[in-house]
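Ticket #4471: structure output looks truncated?

Reporter: J.K.
Steps to reproduce: submitted the chain below (135 residues) through the standard prediction queue, then opened the result file.
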Amino acid sequence: MKIKNIYQNKDGRFRAYIRDDDNKPHVVSYPRLLLEQQLGVKLDSSDDVHHKDEDFTNNDISNLEVIPHGEHQKFHNPTKYHDKEAVCEVCGKTFIWTSIRQRRYYTDLKRGLNRIISCSASCSSKRARDTQLGR
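Returned output as attached by the reporter:
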């Protein structure tokens, strides 16, 4: 593998233009390439390279670490679509609002559908029944 060029992308992140052993060109993440060279192994596709100081222009090897993709997602976006505690709008009970239910809830809101956060189907149907009866 030969590094032909290192450049900064429009988003500010560094990329490397390389040619592999078969002389095929590739564009890869420069921090990922640095860490692979440091560790002497090719990283798994499920691994991400994280900048410890969150400055993605700081590619010092001491600032880079390998973490699983899922953990990296949670680190940078802790509130979006991860299981979290919520309070039912019908009965007031605290429950775990799963990432799947959150995604469906927000998708429905974008579509203009009126949704509530409820702990169960029975609470949801109770609210719908109350709304139909005008309570």
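Triage note (M.O.): checked the attachment and the full token line is present. The chain has a mean pLDDT of 88.
Status: closed, working as intended.
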